[in-house]
């Protein structure tokens, strides 16, 4: 249904996520010669090496540029977290309402597209006016990030 499709839409990339079936025309024909395998691509988006970046601690997929960082004083489900304007190489789960430390929010869990680790969440909607600034922003827990490129 359209409502379910809207819930499964990945907001950073605007594509549907979550186990879609492979269409029959995408499968090789019976008796067709085997296709040459391409080397697997670790992640979809690469951030410039000249910028300080945050990457997934598990697979090193790029997640965000330091310039997208809004705040370091957030609390995730399992410890400290950072709030970002935008992120790359993440997928979104369906939105759900959660009562967080700062009130009721509609959030969607985000996960690394490469290793599928749950990283944090995206704020879809804030129900209190003082929290509206979080809408469309992303929380990534520190335990799932590593700093790379020029932090010294």
From TrEMBL:
GO molecular function, one term: metal ion binding
InterPro entries attached to this UniProt entry: Yippee, Yippee/Mis18/Cereblon, Yippee_fam
A Pfam family of this chain: Yippee-Mis18
Keywords per UniProt: Metal-binding, Zinc
Domain of life where this protein originates: Eukaryota
Domain Yippee residue range list: 52-149
Family classification: Belongs to the yippee family.
PANTHER family reported for this sequence: PROTEIN YIPPEE-LIKE CG15309-RELATED (PTHR13848)
Name of protein: Protein yippee-like
